[in-house]
């Protein structure tokens, strides 16, 4: 299964890069601006929301961060103390200027070391591939899988490009399905 997942990740990364490269900048800027209304209905008004800072080819989450921040939600981003530390989420108080972030051990921006640790009720997650019934294939590091296993009550929602939809994915006992997946053209779910 490890070899199958590795080959699938390679193919999905390449397809994701092709998809994003083919989008004009003006179109990309219009996508993922506001969560679909049915998705907003799933999110409790007092929920802390965990998001991610997207790589160049990942579905962007920055506009969602601003949207939820404007509605009074507390936001959290992944943070790592070092390369071997488990992923935790910490307060992200400035989703507009991102003045509260610093470079972490993986070279990515993350909340500063002194930022308050938070446990999101809702987690917007990146992915490489997904199925129409909510299964997810991540980058392969297992950070989100381990965090979700430790926080089974968190509502996990994927953001993806339409090209990341696949018919089937290898499934292991620790894999947790998503509650929903949002693409530029569709909302998959919510799933039971």
Task: Please explain how this structure is put together.
The protein has five helices and twelve strands. By secondary structure, the protein is α/β, with parallel strands linked by helices. It has a single domain, classed as Rossmann fold (3-Layer(aba) Sandwich), CATH 3.40.50. The strands form three sheets. Strands 6-3-2-1-7-10-11-12 form an eight-stranded mixed beta sheet. Strands 4-5 form a two-stranded antiparallel ribbon. Strands 8-9 form a two-stranded antiparallel ribbon. The longest helix has 21 residues. The radius of gyration is 16 Å and the shape is globular.
The run of helices and strands is HHHEHEEEEEEEEHEEE
Strand content: 15-25%
Main sheet: which strands, in order across?
6-3-2-1-7-10-11-12
Straight-line distance between termini: 26 Å
How many β-strand stretches? 12
Shape from CA axes?
A: globular
Q: How does CATH name the architecture?
A: 3-Layer(aba) Sandwich
**Range of helix content:** 25-40%
Count of DSSP-assigned helices: 5
Q: What assembly state would you assign to the polypeptide chains in this entry? A: single chain
Radius of gyration: 16 Å
Please state the average pLDDT score. 92
* CATH superfamily descriptor: NagB/RpiA/CoA transferase-like
Q: Supply the CATH class.
A: Alpha Beta
Instruction: Specify the biggest β-sheet.
Output: 8 strands, mixed
Structural domain tally: 1
Helix-strand makeup class? alpha/beta
Q: Which fold does the CATH topology refer to? A: Rossmann fold
């Amino acid at each position: 299964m490890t070899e199958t997942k590795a080959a699938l990740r390679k193919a999905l990364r390449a397809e994701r890069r092709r998809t994003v490269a083919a989008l004009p900048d003006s179109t990309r800027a219009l996508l993922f601006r506001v969560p679909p209304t049915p998705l907003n209905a799933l999110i409790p008004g007092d929920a802390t929301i965990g998001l991610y800072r997207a790589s160049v080819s990942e579905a962007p989450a920055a506009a969602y961060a601003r949207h939820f921040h404007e509605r009074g939600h507390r936001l959290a981003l992944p943070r790592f103390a070092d390369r071997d530390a488990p992923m935790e989420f910490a307060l992200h108080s400035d989703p507009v200027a991102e003045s509260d972030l610093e470079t972490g051990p993986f070279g990515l921006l993350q909340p500063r070391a002194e930022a308050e640790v938070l446990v999101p009720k809702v987690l917007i997650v990146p992915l490489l591939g997904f199925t129409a019934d909510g299964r997810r294939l991540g980058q392969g590091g297992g950070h989100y899988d381990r965090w979700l296993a430790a926080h089974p009550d968190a509502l996990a929602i994927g953001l993806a490009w339409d090209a990341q939809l696949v018919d089937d994915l290898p499934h292991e006992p620790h894999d947790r399905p998503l509650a929903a997946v949002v693409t530029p053209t569709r909302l998959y779910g919510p799933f039971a």
